[in-house]
């Protein structure tokens, strides 16, 4: 009985710090940077459109698949502003986008942003890479996923609601 109590206490302490992140229900205050080093903050968000935040890492294979999907299905997001956010350097991002996201470069509704201050994880609450957040024009979370295989849910949602 004594051993069971010790095991129970150990289990409680070992899981006490593992609180799952919850995706942010509304867009939090943030400061990211364009790759020309200019500030992009939550006050700069485009009004009146769906807002699609994609948090990714260029070294992540799942992220590559997500960007490839978005690249091929960009037309399905025509009434959506896409914010592609990474911690990666411009050099790494340029190579990544040149390989997997060429159609997204220079699109009016796509903005590449760098999370220089490492804010995204703490403020948006992603669970892993890639993390996909679709917010309404009122900045309320509509759909969240961390699985690139769910991207069709995002594109079909924005097409049916526009």
User: Oligomeric status of the shown chains?
Assistant: single chain
Shape: globular
Task: Strand order, main sheet: write it out.
Answer: 5-4-3-6-7
- Look at the helices and sheets and give the structural class: alpha/beta
What would you give as the CATH superfamily of the domain at 59-162?
Glutaredoxin
Percent helix among the residues? 25-40%
Cα end-to-end separation: 62 Å
Query: In what range is the share of β-strand residues?
Result: 15-25%
Which keywords apply here?
Glutaredoxin, two-stranded antiparallel sheet, 162 residues, 33% helix, disordered N terminus, 22% strand, single chain
If you had to describe this structure to a student in words, what would you say it looks like?
With 162 residues, this protein is α/β, with parallel strands linked by helices. The protein has a domain at 59-162: Glutaredoxin. 33% of the residues lie in helices and 22% in strands. It has helices spanning 2-15, 61-72, 90-100, 120-124, 151-161, and strands at 31-33, 39-41, 50-56, 80-86, 110-114, 131-135, 141-145. The strands form 2 sheets. It has a 5-stranded mixed β-sheet with strand order 5-4-3-6-7, with helices on one face. Strands 1-2 form a two-stranded antiparallel sheet. The longest helix has 14 residues, at 2-15. The protein starts with a helix and ends with a helix.
């Amino acid at each position: 009985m004594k051993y069971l109590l010790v095991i129970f206490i150990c289990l409680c302490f070992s899981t006490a710090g593992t609180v799952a992140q919850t995706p942010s229900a509304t867009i939090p205050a943030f400061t990211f940077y364009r790759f020309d080093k200019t500030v992009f903050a939550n006050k700069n968000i485009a009004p009146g459109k769906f807002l699609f935040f994609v948090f990714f890492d260029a070294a992540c294979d799942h992220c590559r698949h997500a960007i490839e999907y978005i690249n091929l299905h960009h037309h399905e997001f025509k009434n959506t502003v896409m914010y592609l956010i990474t911690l990666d350097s411009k050099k790494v991002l340029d190579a990544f986008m040149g390989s997997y996201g060429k159609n997204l470069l220079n699109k009016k509704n796509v903005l590449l942003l760098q999370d220089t201050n490492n804010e995204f994880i703490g403020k948006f609450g992603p669970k892993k890479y890639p993390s996909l957040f679709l917010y309404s024009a009122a900045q309320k979370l509509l759909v969240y996923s961390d699985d690139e295989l769910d991207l069709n849910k995002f594109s079909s949602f924005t097409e049916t609601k526009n």
